[in-house]
Design goal:
The protein is α/β, with parallel strands linked by helices. The protein has a six-stranded parallel beta sheet with strand order 3-2-1-4-5-6, with helices on both faces. Helix 1 links the parallel strand 1 and strand 2. Helix 3 packs parallel to helix 5. The longest helix has 14 residues. The radius of gyration is 17 Å and the shape is globular.
């Protein structure tokens, strides 16, 4: 089985995330995508994250009708920083015979050599990223060509829906509409639970 692994804060999950998942599903011929919200991200401050339960609930709301998508609380059940290497080791034990495709943002791709045990990660997965524009695509290709360890990676140039979780949080705080930026179920959940205000 070909499994996509898509991690992130999902604070909140938005339509850009969903479009990206669907694009990778088709482009890579994936059988499943596992969505893993980060608990304590090593590359970012965890400040501003809503509770783990809320982020899991929002992801489950938008994926529950599609068995291809699986929401995992794996990183919430582990103490300390959420290093991708440790997550992949756990997934490898759960799915020993499957192929893994790790989906990351272009900014993360361009700093991949700084990741904890980056070389070991590359032995376990095919790293996949996406260019946001033409210039971005060239930068990603240059990085791939300059780093021999990155040869087994996939750079795609899907059409991007430019939405950011931080912008959504700011709009909620200002009592502005987020309609069209997040699925209706997520918008309703944010309102009902008073998130990001």
């Amino acid at each position: 089985m070909r499994i996509g692994i898509f991690g992130g804060a999902f604070n909140p999950v938005h339509n850009g995330h969903l479009q990206l998942m669907n694009s990778y599903l088709e482009a890579l011929g994936l059988d499943r995508i596992i969505l893993i919200p980060t608990s304590d991200p090593p590359h970012k401050s965890g400040k501003g994250l809503v509770p783990e339960e809320d982020r899991l609930n929002m992801l489950r709301l938008v994926t529950s009708n599609n068995p291809i998508y699986e929401v995992s609380d794996l990183e919430f059940r582990r103490e300390g920083k959420s290093y991708t290497y440790h997550t992949l080791c756990q997934l490898r034990r759960l799915y020993p015979l499957d192929e893994f495709y790790l989906i990351i943002g272009s900014d993360q791709y361009l700093t991949f050599e700084t990741w904890y045990r980056a070389d070991d990660i590359l032995k376990m997965v095919t790293v996949c990223t996406m260019a946001r524009n033409g210039d971005d695509y060239e930068k990603l290709l240059d990085y791939k060509n300059e780093n021999k360890n990155m040869k087994n990676t996939v750079i795609s140039d899907f059409e991007v829906v430019e939405i950011s979780s931080s912008n959504i949080r700011e709009r909620v705080k200002k009592r502005e509409s987020i309609s069209g930026l997040v699925p209706e179920k997520v918008e309703k959940y944010i309102k009902e639970h008073g998130l990001y205000v």
